[in-house]
Every structure is written in C-alpha cells, then in structure tokens.
C-alpha cells in the first residue's frame, strides 16, 4: 500500500520534530506500507522546515508565505504530492499529535479491511494527557445550524460518522485525487469538516477507529480568544483572514439549505458584531 502523508507546520520546531518522529516510527511499524511525507513549513522563523529536512532527509519540505494557515498548508502539501500520484491513500496528519506507536499498525489493518468492501475513510481520535477525547468524528446536528455537530468517540469497533477532525485521518487515494484534495476556499478552519461531508455525499463513508491513536491537546477555542482579546484582536479574529466571514459563508452555502442562506448570513453577521462589541459570548 502506497500512501502520501500531508503535514503543515508553523513556528513550533520542537513540537513538529516530535510529531514527525512519532509519525515515522509508527508508520515504519506497519507491514507492507510504502509512504512519502510532504510537509509545508509556512514561513517559520524558527527553522522548522530546515530542522525537519536535517533530521528526516526523506521528507519533502516546501516553504509557504506565512499566510497559508492549516488548510492552505495542507492544500499546498497535496499539490506537492500530486507530482508523485497516484497514491492508494492519503494520510492527513497534525504535527502536534504524539502517536501511540503500537496502535498504528492495527489502524492500518482496519483501514485495509474496511476498504476491501467499499472505499472508506478511517478517523483516528486523539486524547489529552488526562485521557479525554479532544479530536474525533462528528454526527450532523440541526441542518439549520451551520456548525451543529455531535462528537463521535471511539467504541469497541469502527463507528460511522458524518465528518471529522483531520488530526490523523486516512483517506482513499482515488476519491481524494478526484475531488482535488481539500477545498482551497478555506484557509484555516472548516476544510476537514467540509471534506467529510463531501465524501458522504459522494458515497464514501467515514468511520472512527475503535481506540485513540495518540495524544493531542485541545487548542484554545476561537470564542475564548475573542472573549479575552481587545477590540483590535476581536476585529481580526471575527472579520479578517483567516477567520473572516468568507469561509463560513462558503461552508454554509455548500452544506446547508440554500433557502436558509440569507437568514444564516444575517444571523452570523449580527452575532459577530455583538461579539466585537463585547456584548455576547
């Protein structure tokens, strides 16, 4: 099985090196797996990409502008991988995941078993140091609430989900290549959630693997950053790249009822103006 691993990073050299080391050791433990890693260093000032290339010379490193963010970086990594396509599968990997090395060969075997019957996506859930699930899959909630999702956590066997966080996700190569990777309309957020929903619409189901695959601490939620920031910070987080209204509207237009889009748009603008003024949480 031949896979492309897509990773993006920015200015956390120690975290990235630890994550790549964990990734390489885990993939090397998998039988009959041929992999190539494509990493985008989005203009780090701490030499992240240089250090990755020094310690892991087989990793293909590209350098971004500093304005790619997560989705943009992963899109650039996919573009680099496309020169070596086709691949049997693509692994989307976050550099801050510390993998459980013993679990990844079983994850790989489960993915192969699922795909014997039908092309399927397998999602690896992550936990924090206390064992609480931080990233996993999701079930759709209300179709009228743009970001209403219910988390799907690991159980005793692979469990279906509608979409996912892409901290560690293995995706059928043919499907991923046919849709052109992640939607380039997104810069940072939404792209992984969008991909899972697109896959479901095209008949490619997603499943959460039965056990956590690694440790990944939860990032500070955007609403907390907004609440703690001053007016200038709130404005940037609410209306400027990469968190502005454009990606939200694009996601809503693709995945929510078109007739509801005007109402969804007005409600979101009103909510952000209240957040900007410090009148809402």
UniProtKB/TrEMBL annotation:
Domain Glycosyltransferase 2-like as annotated: residue spans: 5-99
Protein's pathway: Cell wall biogenesis; cell wall polysaccharide biosynthesis
Signal peptide positions on this chain: none
Keywords noted in UniProt: Glycosyltransferase, Transferase
GO MF assignments: glycosyltransferase activity
SUPFAM superfamilies in the record: Nucleotide-diphospho-sugar transferases
Alphabetical list of Pfam families matching this protein: Glycos_transf_2 (PF00535)
Family membership: Belongs to the glycosyltransferase 2 family.
PANTHER family, alphabetized: GALACTOFURANOSYLTRANSFERASE GLFT2 (PTHR43179:SF12), RHAMNOSYLTRANSFERASE WBBL (PTHR43179)
Official protein name in the record: Glycosyltransferase, GT2 family
Organism of this sequence: Rhodococcus koreensis
Upper classification of the organism: Bacteria, Bacillati, Actinomycetota, Actinomycetes, Mycobacteriales
């Amino acid at each position: 099985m031949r896979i492309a691993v897509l990773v993006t990073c920015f200015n956390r050299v120690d975290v990235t090196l630890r994550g790549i080391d964990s990734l390489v050791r885990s993939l090397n433990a998998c039988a009959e797996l041929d992999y190539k890693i494509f990493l985008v260093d989005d203009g780090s000032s701490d030499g992240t990409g240089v250090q990755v290339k020094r310690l892991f010379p087989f990793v293909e490193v590209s350098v971004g502008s500093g304005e790619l963010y997560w989705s943009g970086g992963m899109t650039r990594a996919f573009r680099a991988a496309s020169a070596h396509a086709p691949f049997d599968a693509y692994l989307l990997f976050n550099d801050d995941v510390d993998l459980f090395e013993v679990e990844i060969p079983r994850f790989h075997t489960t993915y192969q078993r699922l795909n014997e019957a039908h092309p399927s996506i397998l999602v690896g859930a992550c936990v924090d140091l206390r064992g609480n699930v931080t990233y996993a899959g999701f079930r759709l909630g209300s179709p009228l609430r743009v970001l209403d999702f219910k988390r799907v956590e690991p159980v005793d066997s692979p469990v279906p989900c509608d979409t996912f966080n892409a901290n560690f996700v293995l995706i059928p190569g043919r499907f991923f290549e046919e849709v052109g990777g992640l939607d380039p309309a997104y810069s940072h957020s939404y792209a992984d959630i969008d991909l899972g929903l697109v896959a479901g619409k095209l008949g490619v189901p997603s499943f959460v693997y039965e056990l956590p695959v690694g440790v990944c601490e939860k990032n500070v939620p955007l609403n907390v950053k907004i609440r703690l920031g001053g007016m200038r910070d709130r404005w940037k987080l609410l209306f400027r790249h990469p968190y502005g209204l454009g990606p939200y509207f694009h996601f809503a237009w693709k995945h929510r009822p078109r007739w509801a889009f005007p109402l969804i748009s007005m409600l979101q603008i009103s909510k952000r103006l209240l957040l900007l003024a410090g009148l809402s949480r």
